[in-house]
Amino acid sequence: MKFTEEHLWLRIEDGEDAITVGLTPYGVGELGDVTFVELPDEGDMISTDDPVVVIEADDDAVDILAPLDGEVIEVNSPLTRAPEVISEDPLGDGWLFKMNIEDVDALEELMDEATYQKYIR
């Protein structure tokens, strides 16, 4: 897994060219209880730092920014009916979207787990 300063995790799926993106448990804890999520559309082309997801939690709305350049290939659409899953299982069923990335080498610029743990302390 790789991590961003914006508290996203990125997991390269075995046997897939895609990465799965979600919010870290720390990031979820900073937001509070998630009550609403607006996901991107499959096929959307996104660029690093573009607003790609909107999450409402504890009466606050937050834009989640794209971690890398690429194309959204799948969204976790059940979250629109049960956004609380993001809070309950951020590393599992609470994933946000999958994307194909344009530059695989860009993953190397992101934090590994040990670096991320130091970052949030």
UniProtKB/TrEMBL annotation:
Please report the organism this UniProt entry assigns to the protein: Sulfitobacter undariae
Per the record, its GO cellular-component terms are: cytosol; glycine cleavage complex
> Any idea where the Lipoyl-binding domain is?
18-100
Say which family it is in: Belongs to the GcvH family.
Q: Which InterPro entries match?
A: Biotin_lipoyl, GCV_H, GCV_H/Fam206, GCV_H_sub, Single_hybrid_motif
Q: Is Methyltransferase there in the keyword field?
A: no
Q: Keywords assigned by UniProt? A: Lipoyl
Q: Name one Pfam family in it.
A: GCV_H
Sorted alphabetically, the Gene Ontology BP terms of this entry are: glycine decarboxylation via glycine cleavage system; protein lipoylation
Its protein name is Glycine cleavage system H protein
